[in-house]
Structure formats: structure tokens, C-alpha cells
Write a structure and sequence with these properties.
The complex is a heterodimer. Chain A is mainly beta. Chain A has 3 helices and 38 strands. The radius of gyration of chain A is 27 Å and the shape is globular. About 4% of the residues of chain A have low confidence. The radius of gyration of chain B is 20 Å and the shape is globular. About 3% of the residues of chain B have low confidence. The chains are: A mainly beta, B alpha+beta.
Amino acid sequence: MRRPSIRSLAGGAAGIAAGVIGGIVLTSVSAAGPAPVSRTPALIDATHVPPVLRLPGEPVRLRYGLVCAPRDDGRPCDGEGTVYLRAGRSGPFRPYPFQRGDESRDGRYFLDVPAAVADSNDGFSYYAVLRDDSRGASVTVPSGGADAPQSSLPLGAAIRIALGRHAFGAVRDPDARVAAASWGSAPQDVGLAGSRELGFSGPSSFDVEPDGTIDLLDSVNGRVMRWGQGRRELVPFGDAAELADFTVESDGTFDVLDARGVLRSFHRDGTPGWTQKLSDRTWAKLDHGSSGPVVLQQPSEQWMPVADDGIPLTRKQQAAAAHAEKKLANGDDLLVARIGEGELRIGEVHRGAPVRAWRITSETPLGEVQLAESSGSRIVVVTRVYSDDHDEFVAVVLDRAGLAARFSVASDSWTETAPLARFRLARGALYRLRTTQSGAFVDRFDLEVPQ
Amino acid sequence: MRRFIVTLGIGLALSAVSGAQAYHRFWAGCNYDAPTFMTTMTRDAAQDYANAARYEGYQWGGGCWNYDDLDSYPDDPPAVAGTHGEGGDCSGLTFKTWRESTDTWRDGRYYWRALRNVHGPYDAASFRNGEGAPNHIVAKATAGVMDAFASGTHIGMIFARSLYGGDQIVEAKCEACGTNIFYRTYRGDSSYGGVGRWGWTG
């Protein structure tokens, strides 16, 4: 080995020194450049609960919350806005400026809908544009604006149903257990994640195919478990998808909607199809639409199609095709509105005109509506009843005479699921996803109501 | 010259070791400044504050974030405090959004800026129990915007009520899911109780 000269040693040392110094300078420049630290974000968002079903003569105040970038003085943003309103569902919109109130609990910005518009037999439709005056940012609600405005219909001659005070503890046992798996990662198991300190998550959703096959989203293990035709099948699809929602299409493809608002479609064998981001920031439920998956999204509070015959829709296309009504299996549409502490309004609509309506009241507070679907000529609704210490689900079957059937179902669950994914209606029965300390189950409750 | 270029490359590679610390670059911006005492605290200003923390990540026991819409260190081990990751945890986000004091007996309004690293003295269970002068239990059926639902392990604030009876909840949910606004059914879930903050001014 040749002995290095002083000159070559000096050159090497100079190179290392120059490299280190250069790297540090570059790092410093990148850190000190357009540093994200303390940057004030350009944010704008809005909140609104639409009055989709109104009682005759009920005054209508449209309320909106405006959400902006936080101010250094800690005060709310200085905003304004306009509601574009029209009677019925066609014709030009007329602008009405918002009033700005002192209270923000139900939305600081409001408009009292003129009686001439509110009392229209065809209801009214509207959208709003809210602005942050200090930054010039604006937001439109619903996000489809004039292309897919929010609508409000008169409830008409609604059938009144009084549930009274709920008696906790009288729950119905299921008629059959149609799927079951223990916790674990083995092929026969379903995944459990979390801890007592952090809470647990497990299978977050499920679906029932027309032939009775049960599909369980094993979110933790990134796979689907299928029970059908006397055997169990595993379909791996990739990474974990905790708290995701899930549907299976008629051709066996399945859709997984993750917590970040990305819908991924997979072929029946688990190979990836397409991926699409949702239009809005928040989602409540993934469901079957007439030509593909639909998602109930917020802040628009509308059902938005995410694909049309297997072709994913852009975010703008989703917003433009949104609607408040949910398509029913019987071809009609359904409007659902939870009002106050204990009222639930259900309206069946045909081509925009009310067909039947029910006004359900309860002395015990009502929580979320887990499911509202048609079963033959009837409407099946599953909602939660709760006190500060107890909760159960109540299933009601509605018909032209009123309440055709009613029963309570236990709501306790060892793990968290997607928010509105605890029940499915298929083949004339109600299916429930439940988890316990030992595993996950799908139970069936037969709806023994003559059709 | 060739030796210089080779060693220059080695030097640049060595400097990249410090680049690996870029994950924690944001941590250098975190501070321990005193909060600003305020006379007002509206629910929509609280919405503004919590909404701006979306996408900034989750850190068990944490309370410092910037506003770059990224979790600077998304892979911290769950349930380990002190790893200098970005974001609050569920109770830290609630504490800062509700402008509370680190002294549990004070019920004034203290504005903590995002980069002020503070978690506060409450965990989810103590919020659920209404502990501390600024906090109290509310009936779940009447809980409104920027009130909260808390269980023994988690707390989330009501960003908005929703049409199907659930709520849009702003929450620091977990290391994998970060901080965001999610549709939740905590209101009807008996493992959750309603919690409020005294002193809203509008």
C-alpha cells in the first residue's frame, strides 16, 4: 500500500469538510426557508344541518357555522355569506344575505326563510356561499352548489308514532348466528387491535350478498372473510383498514372506505381496482347506489355517488350528482331527519314528491339512525335509544298503517366499528355485527311481518 | 481533484445524518411561552382552533403542532409519551381548544398557541368525570357544538351535529389515524359521557 501524501490527505479532509458544511448549509436553508412552523393556514369550512323534512307551517331558520383559520386575538372569523334560495326544485335562485348572530352554538350565520318560499307545496331548494372577509376565502355548502342544491320538503300528512319511554333490558335474541370468528391472525380468526388503555378496534363493517353470503371486513388483518355455501373463504386485499366501511357489489367486487376518506375498489379476488378520494371532508356511511357505491358526506349532508357502473367519479362529479334522498330498493327515495332530542322524521319520495311520511317521537332520547331501507312495501329503520348510562338499538317496521313491528336489540360491542355499519337489511331479515371479548359475530333477526 | 470529489460526497452523506433528524425539526419550534389570558371564548373560535389542528398528527401526551397539514413524525410508538412527535392527544387537544389552565382550580380562559407544547393536567377519564374548575358534566342529549363526549380512554369535541343523528367529532384519535373530523356515534354510546366547558361567551 502506497503511503498517502500530505497533499492527498489535505484534499480528502477538505472534501469531507466541504461536504459536511455544504450539507448543513443545505439543511439549514431548507429548515429556514418557507418553514411550516407558525404558518397561519388558509382554512375555511362550514357546518349546516339541513331541514330536509318540515312540518306544515313550521318556521324555517337556516343556520350555518363558518370555520376559518384561527386568529391571533382568539376571536372568531369575521365572515359573511349569501343563501341562494328558490321555491321548488327548478328555476333561478334568489340571493339572500345572512344575518350574523351573537351565539355560535347552532351556527352564527342564519337566514329566516320567507314564508312564501317555506310554504311552497313543492318545498324549496338552496345552497349557501360563506366568506372569510379577512382572507377572501369562501366555501359553498353543499359542495355541488347550484348543480346539486340542498332541498327541503313538507312532511305532509305524516303518520305519528309515539315510542314512549324506552324500557332498557328487554332485548330480542337473534334468530340465528350466521357468522362467527375468534380474535387472532390465523386464517380462521378475525383481527383485534388496540389495548384497554387505547380502546379496541376489530372488524369495522360487513355486508350480506343476495345469496346470503356474509362478508366481514377483517380491518386489522387487511382481508375479507366470506361465509357462504357451507364454507369460509379469505380474501386478502392489503394493509389494515381500521374503522373503514365496506360494501360488496352484485358482481363480487368490494369497496373499502377508509378513515381518511379514500374509497378503494377491489375485484372479488382482492386485487386492486380503482381508488378515489371523496368530495367532502367527512363521511358517515358507505352504501349501495343504483349504479355503484354512494357515500353520505359532510358538510354537504348528502349522498354522493363515487362511481358510475365501475367508473370512479371525480370529486367535482360526486358533488354535482349529490342528493339528500337515499335510493330505496323499491325504486323510491327516502329522506331521514333526526330532530331535537327524541324525534325522527322519515319521508318516502317518488320523483321529488312525497308519497308517505312517518313522524316518530320518543320520550327517551334517540341517537343515530343506523339503517333506513325498504323491505317490500315497508320501511325498516334501526335507531339508537339512549340515556346517559344505557343504550340499545330499536328496530321499527313502518307501513301505511303506522308501526307494523318493533323490537329492541343489544348495542354493546367490545370494539369500535365504522359509525353506521352495525346493521344490514337483506333477504327479509336484519343482520347485526357484534363483538365480544372472545370474538366477532354476525346475527340474524327475521322480520316476521307478512308482506 | 478526484479524491476531493469522492470525499465531498462522503461529507454530504455524513451531513444527511442530521437530515434524518428533520422529522424532529418542527420540535425546535415548540416552546413553553406563557398563555394569553382572554376575556372571550366563543364556540366558533374553538372550532377554528381545533379544525386547524387537523392533519397535524397525534402524539400520546403531546400538545405541540405547527400548521403545515402534515404529521412531522407519524410513526411514534403508541402510548409512549416524550418522543417529541407532532400533535396533541385527545385530552391535550381538548385542553388547548378549551383554553384551560394548567392549574385545575383556575377557570379563566388561557389561549395556548399551536406551538406551545402543553398537554394539561387532564386525561380522558378526568374530563369525563368533570374534574377541574372549568369543566362540568352535561346531559348527552343536550350537548352542543364544542361540548365533548368522553369515555375512560378517549375524548372528542362536537364539531357539528349531523342529519342522521350522529355527530361530526373533531378529535386526536390515534397515532395511525391522527387528528381529524370524523362522523361518530359517541352521543348514544353508553361508554361515553357528556362534558362541557364553563365560560363560553358566544
